[in-house]
Each structure stands twice: as C-alpha cells, then as structure tokens.
Amino acid sequence: MEVIKALNNSLILSQNDEGIEVILMGKGLGFSLKRGDVVPEEKIEKVFKLDSISETLKSDYIQLFENIPEKLLLVVKEIIDHSNAQFETSLSKNLFFTLLDHINYAIERTQQGIVFQNKLLVEIQRYYPKEFALGKYAVEHLNTELQIELPEEEAGNIAFHIVNAQDGRANMEETIQAIRMLKDILMLLSYLFPEKEVDTESLLYLRFVTHLQFFISRMLKKEELPTKDDFLLNSVKERLSREFSAAKKVKKYVEVELDVAVNNDELLYLTLHIARVY
Q1: Between the CA of residue 207 and those of 112, 210, 251, 273, what are the distances in Å?
Q2: Which of 34, 141, 148, 267 is most buried by a 10 A CB count?
Q3: Could you tell me the fold of the domain covering 195-277?
Q4: DSSP strand E in the chain: where?
Q5: Tell me, what DSSP letter sits at residue 200?
Q6: Is 180 helix (H, G, I), strand (E, B) or coil?
Q7: Average model confidence (pLDDT) across the chain
Q8: Helix (H) or strand (E) holding 275
Q9: Which numeric CATH code is attached to 1-53?
C-alpha cells in the first residue's frame, strides 16, 4: 500500500489492493513516509477501512485525525484493545472513530466546565455491567495517561459506545432506544407484580434481562423467532394466565413503540421467562 497522505506521526491515509481507502496506524508511520512511498507491512499495527461511511463523514474523520493529539490516539487504541480482549468476537472497527470523536469532545467539554447528565447511567450500570466496567477503566486510563479529569459519569457514555459496537447495531440512537425500552419493560413488570421482591442478582433474573435484550434487538431489526405450533402457547396461557397477561402488555408496548408485530413464539418465551422471575 502507498501513502496518499500522512495525517500525523502515527496515521497514514492509503488505499488497499481492492481500491478502498484505509487509515493505517503504526508508530512513526507518518513521520518517516511521504506521498507515494510504499508502507512497510511490518510497521502497520491497525487498518481501518473507510468503505462503510459516507464521503462527508470520511472527510470529517480525516480532519479529526489531523487535528487530534497523537497521545490521545494511542490511549484510545489501548482502551479498544483492552475492551476487545473482554469479548469472544471483535468489536466493530468503527468504534475507533466514534469513541475517539466522543472522547475528544468530552475532554473539550470538561475543560470548559460543561457536564452532560447521562439519564440512563443507572440502567447502563445495571444491565451492561461489563461495558460499564470498561467505561470506568477508560476514564481512569484517560485521566492517568493524559493528566485530565474526566468525570466518572463519562464511564456510562463510553459504555454506550461499547454496547453499540456489538451485535452489528446500526447506530447510537438504536442503542439508547434499546436500553430505554429495557428499562420501561422492567418497570412495567414491577408495576404488574408489586408484591414480588425480585432478586436482581439471581441467575434467573440475569437470564431474563439477557432474553429481553435479544428480544428488543430482534424487534429493532424486524427479525422474529420462527412461528411454531400454538399448542404449547395455549397450554401456557391457561396455566400461567397472569404471566401471559403481563407478556401481552409487554408485546403491545413493543409493537406500539417500534411499529412491529410480535409473534406467538416471542409471546410464549416472554411468558415463560416472566413466570420464572415474577
């Protein structure tokens, strides 16, 4: 690959063999090479493809890289490497762009004394503990390495980006919507079963929350479980009438919220999970 443009000491804009523009990351790459030079493969540490974003966004990211402190680039890379090591599958490559942009802006806001309240901070901490822990690690690492004072609340915002980088989620708006819906469903169920003291630390509850997360994700993507025979649903409907009624209310909420149709298999599994927890 040849150099198109050196963005800073560590980043180079290039083009791969498929003709796709890429950003190459490696220590000292931009310092020692100029336009037209061939980039030594052994010096390339990361490759970021720019084929999945618009021309406008591509231009914005390139400008961001040209103006951002190199130390921040390296620290964000360390955060992403550390985060990737915690999951069985790699996080989206776009996380580098979105997280870098967010953290750069968060630093600017903090230096100006501006703090945005994350209204879903408690939900992120409760329902995505691994991602929140990574967010806390990121804040501590940034504060130590860059000698800054990002507030602990930024851990929740960074966790949003890590959640968003999983499961091929479309965008941050979708991630926020999914977390808000999860909160609403759990609040609805606590209202429907006021006498039940749910152990939120139990395995049954954690399984239920996981089921809801995947259920909401499927509905956002307009995917469904395959519909089977309704015999089991009819049996459950009779045996677990209260739980079935609660599941129907969750079904209605999701259908109105997302303009989707929730099929009977989804309703069946919702009923069974509710019966185990409530």
Answers
A1: 42, 5, 19, 8
A2: 267
A3: PTS-regulatory domain, PRD (1.10.1790)
A4: 3-6, 11-15, 21-25, 46-49
A5: T
A6: helix
A7: 86
A8: helix 264-277
A9: 2.30.24.10
Q: Do residues 263 and 224 touch, judged by C-beta distance below 8 A? A: yes
Kindly give the residue spans of alpha helices, DSSP state H, lying in 43-86.
55-67, 70-84
Q: At what angle do helices 154-164 and 172-192 cross, to 10 degrees?
A: 100
What is the domain partition of the chain in residue ranges? 1-53, 68-166, 195-277
Neighbours of 112 (CB within 10 A): 8
Say whether pLDDT at 206 is over 80.
Answer: no
User: Predicted confidence band at 61 (pLDDT cuts at 50, 70, 90)?
Assistant: confident
The CATH number of the domain covering residues in 68-166? 1.10.1790.10
Q: Which residues contact 115 (CB under 8 A, 6 or more apart)?
A: 109, 151, 153
> What are 172-179's contacts with CB under 8 Å, separation 24+?
172/98, 174/220, 176/120, 177/220, 178/213, 178/216, 178/217, 178/220, 179/120, 179/123, 179/124, 179/127, 179/128
**Residue 121 neighbours by CB distance under 10 Å:** 18
Give yes or no on whether 68-166 and 195-277 have one common fold: yes
What is this structure's pTM?
0.70
Q: Crossing angle for the helix pair 203-220 and 172-192, nearest 10 degrees?
A: 130
Kindly give, in sequence order, each residue whose CB lies less than 8 Å from that of residue 278, ignoring residues fewer than 6 positions away: 189, 192, 193, 196, 198, 243, 246
